[in-house]
Write a structure and sequence with these properties.
- Chains A, B: Keywords: Acyltransferase, Amino-acid biosynthesis, Arginine biosynthesis, Autocatalytic cleavage, Cytoplasm, Multifunctional enzyme, Transferase.
- Chains A, B: Catalyzes two activities which are involved in the cyclic version of arginine biosynthesis: the synthesis of N-acetylglutamate from glutamate and acetyl-CoA as the acetyl donor, and of ornithine by transacetylation between N(2)-acetylornithine and glutamate.
- Chains A, B: Heterotetramer of two alpha and two beta chains.
- Two copies of one chain form a homodimer.
- Chain A folds into two domains: about 250 residues, 4-Layer Sandwich (L-amino peptidase D-ALA esterase/amidase); about 120 residues, ArgJ beta chain, C-terminal domain (Ubiquitin-like (UB roll)).
- In chain A, about 30% of the residues lie in helices and about 25% in strands.
- Chain A has ten helices and 15 strands.
- In chain A, helix 2 links the parallel strand 4 and strand 5.
- At the A-B interface, helix 2, helix 8, helix 9, strand 13 and helix 10 of A face helix 2, helix 8, helix 9, strand 13 and helix 10 of B.
Chain lengths: ~375, ~375
């Protein structure tokens, strides 16, 4: 039920010693063809990690035969030396597989500003090549975990073709992706331009609407590969729908496993003049620490919803906005609504519904609460 | 050393029962003239509280004889009824003092979305009027505290004239002011336009550069009153300098008392193409939860500084940025610099110096860390 669910893909995950824990930390996904079509979406952070710089170049041609991924180090902000490490890694994978380095993408995750121990990584790559198998997707998913508590995988079935995927990410979830590595595979026949368009659409309505803590990573990478092994050529709509389903499934798994979170919060802004307005208002709530701490404390503090939206330029009138939390309209016309005591926040799922009454568009942003465990995990992460 | 340090001002603070703790919660500051010049700066939040709506109208004429302030309730998002409560409060003050309601500003702080108990507030106002005195400034400072642990006051001496001030605020500190109420007084002779310009300048380089938790309040209010009682007419530069000194003093007190904070963090961005760029980059750091939690954990995680700046549109090249934390240049040219082990973060003060090497401008943003106590205080605030 992973990247090896579609035909013609092999994968592996091994422990190379990058993590002091001894847990698996090198993953490899190989496309055995016949096609080698690929597409990708990367972080928009202006300090892209070395593997992002490398993989962007590789993916420019929309052709890919392998992706090597490591946890235990982001290889970000490591200068020309770090880029050389990524290049060496790709060359090593290529040599082991008998392909070109320009057909190998690299993705890394872990601490920023630390060089990778190449004396461990390269033997790990060799070991991963030796372990490649048609059911290695789960091992690959495990090897890319950092603070994730569970591996994230997905599979979506078409008529005679399949989309599979693995993901990691449990913090820094934010717009323009998360510290998130995703590899999607499909055995459908998909032209490069179509795959890129479908992937961009799929990410825009899934991971790009997850804003767990507003922090944008230097390493976010989503790569999709299509090898045509099924011989089936689905329509544009079918490909887009399958990739969107896969990315949404993975995004919700990331949300559910966000560092220290105790709530999954869906903020739906409706009655907006535009989707952009709805997203802006939703994101302002998702990034408001006072709202997020209140929800951690099971406090339906609708005043903090308004205070957050009040910082945006979305179209609305202050005396027209309604806020409903888990079914109770606690704010009407920008003022006191039904009793807040009626709101049950004891479960993990929270639905905040904001009606701007300024139009007909809507959008949902997903976020988490801000918990004591989040602070603890992130203050202790690198020490 | 407060609003009653300048000549011709009286103040008082009393417990009216708005707070369940029984602590003081109503403050009054009265200008006995001869001039009644005033200026103000208010929150830019698009859900301004009822007292903000009221006081904006009152201050439009730049004349003011009294300010009544309450803690224990923000009177925000309370609709037309809340505005009527504010109006009634101003009328009551005016009647007690024998002045017009249009000469009375109102400021409130506390929970959003709850009506004020007028049956307690109005008798409190009466009691405050009875207690007005030329040394009542400290009592007034105490009566506006919410989660503040100490009252905030300031005094700045000119040649024959004085500026005094009180402030509250210990959370939601953010650009365009904080949940912050400030009253400044001076016995200098200052024309209305000059007072407004000087106050705007003073706030722009002080409280507007404090960004404790990125949350913008519905109630922020800074009011300055000048009564000319000293007979001294300082220059524009002298007035601006004194107000700036007073506001900076108060801003640093707010920072030091921010909810749950264990660090005061000064983020100076230099080598910027513009002051706006420096502020944008500094603010991105101040709002990055991963950086703030790292600093709480005494972790000089410069990678998170770059990741934060990398989300902005400030002018810089990724391989040109240096980061110095408490004197150690841990990042050079966007890559690994001196050993992070050399950084001592054990004290409360942290200086992060970012050199964008893209120009000659600089600016400092002040913020706090994100601590377990912050989450605890803000999740428990209204429950």
């Amino acid at each position: 039920m992973t990247v090896t669910s579609p035909q013609g893909f092999r994968a592996a995950g091994v422990a190379a010693g990058l993590k002091t824990s001894g847990n698996p930390d090198v993953a490899l996904v190989v496309n055995d063809g016949p096609d080698d079509v690929a597409a990708a979406v990367f972080t928009t952070n202006r300090f892209p990690a070395a593997p992002v710089l490398w993989s962007r170049q590789v993916l420019a041609a929309h052709r890919l035969k392998a992706v090597v991924l490591n946890s235990g180090g982001a290889n970000a902000c490591t200068g020309p030396e770090g880029f050389a490490d990524t290049h060496t890694t790709a060359e090593h994978v290529a040599a082991e597989l008998g392909i070109g380095a320009g057909e190998v993408a690299v993705a890394s995750t872990g601490l920023i500003g630390v060089r990778l121990p190449m004396d461990k990584l390269l033997p790990g790559v060799t070991a991963a090549v030796a372990k490649l198998s048609a059911d290695g997707g789960t091992a690959a998913a495990q090897a890319i975990m950092t603070t994730d508590s569970v591996p994230k995988t997905t599979v979506q079935r078409g008529e005679g073709w399949t989309v599979g995927g693995i993901a990691k990410g449990a913090g820094m979830l934010a717009p323009s992706l998360a510290t998130m590595l995703v590899v999607l595979t499909t055995d459908a026949v998909v032209p490069p331009a179509l795959l890129q368009t479908a992937l961009a659409q799929a990410t825009s309505v899934s991971v790009e609407r997850v804003d767990s803590d507003g922090c944008l990573s230097t390493n976010d990478t989503v790569i999709a590969m299509a090898n045509g092994a099924s011989g089936v050529t689905p329509t544009v709509e079918e490909v887009t729908a399958a990739l969107t389903a896969a990315m949404t499934d993975l995004a919700m798994q990331l949300l559910a496993d966000a560092e220290g979170s105790t709530k999954d919060i869906a903020i739906t802004v409706r009655g907006a003049a535009s989707v952009a307005d709805a997203l802006t208002a939703g994101r302002a709530c998702a990034r408001n620490n006072l709202l997020k701490t209140a929800l951690f404390g099971n406090d339906p503090n609708w005043g903090r919803v308004l205070a957050a939206i009040g910082t945006t330029d979305a179209a609305f009138e202050a005396d027209q906005v309604d806020v409903t939390i888990n079914g109770v309209t606690v704010c009407r016309n920008g003022a006191i609504g039904d009793p807040r005591e009626g709101v049950d926040l004891s479960g993990r799922a929270i639905a905040i519904d904001v009606d701007l009454r300024a139009g007909t568009e809507e959008a949902t942003i997903w976020t988490n609460d801000l918990s004591i465990a989040y602070v603890h995990e992130n203050s202790a992460y690198s020490t």
